[in-house]
Amino acid sequence: MKSAYWKTDWFIGLTVTVFFLLISTTGPMRQLDWFAYDQAVRFSSTRPASQDIAVVTIDQKSLRELGAWPWPRDMLARVVGRISKAKPRVIGLAVPLDTRQSTRGLEYIRQLQEIFRQNWGATGDSIKRILKKARTGLDTDRVLAAALKKSGPVVLAMPYSDAAPVSEGDVTVLEPALARLMLRDVVRPESEPGWLDRLRGRVVPEARVLHPPLADFYRYARGVGHYPTRAGSDPNARIHSLVVRNGEHYIPSMALVLATVGQGLKLSDIHADAVSGALKIGDEALPVNGALQVLPHFYEGSDGGPAFRQYAISDVFKGNVPSRAFHKKIVLIGMTDSGTVLPLETPRGMRTPVMVTAHTVSSLLNGDLYRPPQNGGAFTFVALLVVALYLMFILPRFRIGTGLALSTLLLFALLNIHFISIISRSTWIPLALPMVVLVLGHLVVGFKHLLQARLGRVYSELSEANRMLGISFQGQGQLDMAFDKYRQCIVDDGLLDQLYNLGLDYERKRQFNKAEAVFKHILNHDTRFRDVQERLYRNKEISQSFALGTSSAGNGSSTLVLHTTGIQKPMLGRYQVEKELGRGAMGMVYLGQDPKIGRTVAIKTMSLAQEFEGEKLEEVRARFFREAETAGRLNHPNIVTIYDVGEDQELAYIAMDYLKGDSLLVHCKPDNLLSADAIFDIMIKVAEALDYAHEQNVVHRDIKPANIMYDKESGTVKITDFGVACLTDASKTKTGTILGSPSYMSPEQLAGKKVDGRSDLFALTITFYQLLTGELPFIGESLASLMYKIANEKHPDVRMFRPDLPSCVSKIINKGLHKDIERRFQSGQQLANSLMRCRERLE
After folding, report:
1. Residue 183: beta bridge partners?
2. In this structure, are residues 467 and 489 in contact, taking their beta carbons and an 8 Å threshold?
3. Is it the case that residue 104 has pLDDT exceeding 80?
4. Torsions phi, psi of 162, nearest 5?
5. What are φ and ψ of residue 718, in 5° steps?
6. Could you give the CA distance from residue 92 to residue 99 in angstroms, rounded to a whole number?
7. Cβ(414)–Cβ(408) under 8 Å?
């Protein structure tokens, strides 16, 4: 038998691959990729950082000595002035300069100056000079701007956020004067990037929220570059965007500008192609990806020291650092105190933004750059595809040991590609995803195979045991149990023979749908086995043509009678079934013949196995045969004669006298009521018959018009279904069907109490009421409502519907329907006597 597709090896391998492909862009998988990248970078050869870079740090020592941050900008001006005297190549000021410092005191000085000019004129020159000096000293932004003007090349930082702006008003629009410091030699795409460009990784990152320096500062700067910070949600600094986009402007990174100016070049020497993904500084092409990003190298210092020369800004401020320390250097000034600025993640651990910039500048100068994945990681996808195909089609072909060796070799190959590409080729190929898929996919497929191998031995032993049980059940005629056991066996030619014989047995039992199921089961394993296809077609045709439902003889709602040529009349016990007479809640009624004596009988069938199960089934079956046999001993002219009771083809049946006429149900309709005299005659006969049965300790339990046969021509009255109604004590079948007729049940019967003949008299009184009026005395919108009314509410007076009836009719019905069982008629004869007395008063 073929396994379900979701159990196959190819589906398991595909599922593992697709699952990890879907989560490949989530945080955990990205972290795994970067972890693998970090390990490869650490294994790469140790390279010294550029000695042309010096970092002036705003560290804890400087904060203790010069005060808490932020400082007045005249202090920065003093530091810039001292450094510029050393004639560095370029100064990178990596501190925020996007807001003005407080000018409240400066405003007061201006007001005092105006008062002196208007009132004293030329007098008070000394005071004017002091005020002018105070004004100059308090305007720290002006002091810093003057220092930048006098210094050599300066590059300013412009922090940005890659997060979406809260509103359109938060989107930064660059001023025209600042825009001149952006890249100009850029090949721009003709339209906005589409989903394919994003998939291929050819979209330059967008910076919509920028914090540019004030115009007083950037007018004296050689360049302004975007600066890495923790403003966004991603603290990763391993990959560096050399260019970001803001509207029509392409903004270089601070590191790119420093490296360019530090080599004596201009911004115009930077050539960017945002379409094909290329970037040059002069004639030197940089190994960028389609988004103009690079992977900088992060250096280690010798003997565990810093990679770059670092000087505390407090020492520079005090003049404790010699000028030659900055001569012809690229000098970066920035915060390194981790309590003031948030560090970023790098392959060498956490680094502050200014140190990340220093490492990036050094990588650009030394050419120590790693190439990021190209075309959205196409090689990664190819590797993932190879792993997926391996898991789906190659690994399942080998034993566990061989498969483990192959998977290890493939994992080793992926690791080598990953490390060698970085160490030797300076190219990063993210292979963490294929490696994770390989490892976990192998574990899942291997576990499945191991489990199958161990279970296979168990299944083989169980299969033989089930086969023997199936043969035993089939020999006992328990075909369903046999089929159930056969289906649990491993299929071979011997089992197919047993199944074929089982299908023939079902055909003999008229259980065509089950025969069809057996033959279908055979065809699932061997489409050419004997004449199975022909037999399947024949059984299916019979089942469909005659609408047999499940086509089971044991199904109470299905008929045994077929009118197809070549199909023999079925047998129930010793009776030959001729035709169907009617249907009931639990079975069918057939006209039958006893071939031995030629007697015509009515055969009522019930599928007990369908309606009950377990211990309840055995209890109901035993009660059914016991009470049916007891009812069969009843000998009364108004009780139908029972000839036989038995069980065949999973059907319990009762063979009884075949009666002419109809049930009283046809006379319960308002337009087809019997005369009052006829009704009294019927009720008297039924009450006397019930009195006789009750004396024999037989309770009917389901007296109703449908169970009383009446032949209008001869006046014959017969109570039917004695012995069948005993099943109403079971209350409900396993399908939830309530047995019996709730509208005719007494309060004690609805309550589940043990009933006696007085419950039959309660039901007979309801029948009497219905025959007289065409209405039931208790009617509810639901079963619960009906049960409540029977147990608690009084019925409507019968004379409301039939005012022509004498009052004694109301008295009889009131007594017969009393809620208290002790206040009802205590015997059938008592009820019959009351009916006879009342009949004399009929007009």
Report:
1. 250
2. yes
3. no
4. -90, 0
5. -135, 135
6. 18
7. no
Q: How many residues does the chain have?
A: 843
CB 61 within 8 Å of CB 314? yes
pLDDT tens for each residue of 531-570? 888 888 887 877 775 444 444 444 445 566 655 443 446 7
pLDDT, tens digit, for every residue of 298-308? 998 887 789 99
Task: Round to whole Å and give the CA distance between 399 and 419.
Answer: 30
Query: Which residues, in sequence order, are CB contacts of 25 under 8 Å at separation 6+?
Result: none
8 A C-beta contact, residue 49 and residue 362: yes
Q: What's the start-to-end Cα distance of the chain, in Å?
A: 80
Long-range contacts of 418-421 (CB under 8 A, 24+ apart): 418/36, 418/40, 419/40, 419/43
What pTM does this model have? 0.56
Q: Would you state the structure tokens that stand for residue 313, as one six-digit string?
A: 């800004």
**CA distance to 590, 688, 708, per residue, from 640 (Å):** 16, 14, 10
Residue 545 DSSP SS3:
helix
The two beta strands, 588-594 and 344-346, are unpaired
Q: Does domain 662-843 have CATH number 1.10.510.10?
A: yes
Distance, CA of 725 to CA of 719 (rounded, Å): 12
DSSP per position, 743-758:
GG--HHHHTT----HH
CA–CA dist 495, 482 (Å, integer): 12
CB atoms within 10 A of CB 117: 12
- Residues 391-411 have pLDDT tens digits of 898 888 888 889 899 999 999
Domain locations in the chain as residue ranges? 5-45+374-455, 53-98+154-183+207-268+292-367, 553-658, 662-843
Backbone angles phi and psi of 551, in degrees to 5: 60, 30
Closest C-alpha among 565, 569, 529, 564 to residue 546: 564
Tokens matching residue 614: 């377990």
Q: Are 289 and 277 in contact (CB under 8 A)?
A: yes
Q: How many other β-carbons are positioned within 10 Å of the β-carbon of residue 187?
A: 11
Gap between the Cα atoms of 432 and 426, Å rounded = 17
Residue 180, Cβ neighbours under 10 Å: how many?
13
Give per-residue burial for 48-68: e unless 16+ CB within 10 Å, then b.
ebbebbbbbbbbeebbeebee
| Other CB atoms within 10 Å distance of the CB of residue 690 | 28
- The two structure tokens encoding residue 784: 């619960």
Q: Whose structure tokens read 């045969």?
A: 625
Q: In this structure, are residues 152 and 91 in contact, taking their beta carbons and an 8 Å threshold?
A: yes
Candidates 280, 205, 202; CA nearest to 240 is 205
Count the neighbouring beta carbons within 10 Å of the beta carbon of residue 367: 11
Paired tokens of 329: 């250097």
Instruction: Report how far apart, in Å, the C-alpha atoms of 632 and of each of 625, 687, 698 are.
Output: 10, 19, 11
CA distance 835 to 677: 11
Q: What's the mean pLDDT in 762-770?
A: 94
Residues 6+ apart with CB under 8 A from 469: 485
pLDDT tens digits, one per residue of 640-680: 888 888 887 678 888 888 888 888 999 999 899 999 999 99
CA angle 698–695–742, rounded 5-degree value = 40
- Distance from C-alpha of 311 to C-alpha of 798, rounded to nearest angstrom: 114
The pair of three-digit structure tokens given for residue 551, joined into one six-digit string: 């086509």
- Neighbouring CB atoms inside 10 A of 792's CB total 9
Q: Among 3.40.50.620, 3.30.1540.10, 3.30.200.20, 3.40.50.300, what is the CATH number of 553-658?
A: 3.30.200.20
What is the rounded CA–CA span in Å between residue 284 and residue 223?
20
Kindly tell me the sign of the dihedral angle through the C-alpha atoms of 56, 58, 62, 68: positive
d(CA 560, CA 569): 8
Give the DSSP H/E element, type plus range, for residue 187. Answer: strand 186-187
For residue 334, which phi and psi values (nearest 5 degrees)? -165, 170
Listing DSSP states for 686-729 in one string gives HHHHHHHHHHTT---S--SGGGEEEETTTTEEEE--TTTGGGGG
